[in-house]
Amino acid sequence: MPDVLRLPTADGGWIGYQPRGGFAYPKQAPPPRSRIPYAAVHVVADPWADTTPISPAAIDWEATLAFRHHIWSYGLGVAEAMDTAQRGMGLDWATCRELIRRTVAEARACGGRVVCGAQTDHLEPGSARTLRDIEAAYEEQCEFIEGCGAQVVLMASRELARIARRPEDYLRVYDRVLSQLQRPALIHWLGEVFDPQLRGYWGYEDLDKAMEVCLEVIRHHAHRIEGIKLSLLDQRREVEMRSRLPRSVHMFTGDDFDYPATIKGDGDRYSDALLGAFDAIAPAASAALLALDAGDEGEFERILAPTLPLARHIFSTPTFYYKTGIVFLAYLNGHQRHFKMVGGLESARSTVHLARIFLLADQAGLLQDPELAVERMRLVLRLAGADEVAHLPA
């Protein structure tokens, strides 16, 4: 049993915490059958690259690809080059190209499922002048992804949000881009809680009106769309939108606050999953979905219940910094040798925030090697100046 830790708290105090220890899940698992699950995955930065926050991203390719194999080993799909991979927060398109190329090749070799994000982020911010500029940028990225043999996730575009003046502008852009794809795509509606620059997407700040525009796109192109990933952290709207989708179109929940309810569903309506939270809780997500396959909804809920406090903490306000918590948990679990991120984003969350991630992950049985996790938590505390306090008995 690991030693007692002294962990800092949000009120400026300290608590003595005895880690429970013990990993609660199998080391691998088959793919679930009753739901389509994707984990939006992070990238591992190269800690020895000579970079600055505005330099092109430097990636530790071996560790990054090994993590994708970890996700596939639990039967989950990989959603590549999405916002969890710091798209729009340090990961540039040139690096995305190489990331997508390598991940798709690895997926093909091991039979893993993969989808890849396309948007317009190779345009310089503020450079798009016309909707045709946006369309051409989407087309370039989609062509590359499909050329690699992968399925496209059509992500929201900051440049489109900047220059669009009415809902019809969104209808035009999505109509042109979707009509040129070789295989059905996923649409990703990322809300402003994840990216403030996407405020007013689909032509309205009112989310109910915005939903109508998005639904119009989906109905018009239902044969070209496999599903929509909704990232609004709004269960009511997800359930409503899900009920209005064409039967052939899947709802992929992006609700990192309430995924058990949306995945379980209501009657014959349920959500599949494309979640950043699944990067952190892959073993639990896999076990829960296999329980659902077996028709055991109680076990499904029992497994996921202790993961919810962890996910809600990781995705707490400001939500767009959730990537820091995702990477920190990967560090605690030995998936990378260091706690460094592209663009220095490891500094985006406090030591107090990180300490609570450790505690909640332990309580959810998600620390794969508790002694290693404790050792690494101690290192983080020491770097924050807690050399003496962290070793005091409870």
Any chance you could write out the topology, listing elements then pairs?
Layout: E1 5-8, E2 14-17, E3 37-40, H1 61-73, E4 77-80, H2 93-110, E5 114-118, H3 131-147, E6 151-154, H4 158-163, H5 167-179, E7 185-190, H6 207-220, E8 225-231, H7 235-244, E9 250-253, H8 259-264, E10 272-275, H9 277-293, H10 297-304, H11 307-314, H12 322-332, H13 351-363, H14 370-383
Parallel strand pairs: 3-4, 3-10, 4-5, 5-6, 6-7, 7-8, 8-9, 9-10
Antiparallel strand pairs: 1-2
Describe this structure in words.
α6 (207-220) links the parallel β7 and β8. The protein has 394 residues and is α/β, with parallel strands linked by helices. It has one domain (27-305): TIM Barrel (Alpha-Beta Barrel). α1 (61-73) packs across α2 (93-110) and α5 runs parallel beside α6 (207-220). The chain contains 14 helices and 10 strands. The chain starts with a strand and ends in an 11-residue tail after the last helix. The protein has helices at residues 61-73, 93-110, 131-147, 158-163, 167-179, 207-220, 235-244, 259-264, 277-293, 297-304, 307-314, 322-332, 351-363, 370-383; strands at residues 5-8, 14-17, 37-40, 77-80, 114-118, 151-154, 185-190, 225-231, 250-253, 272-275.
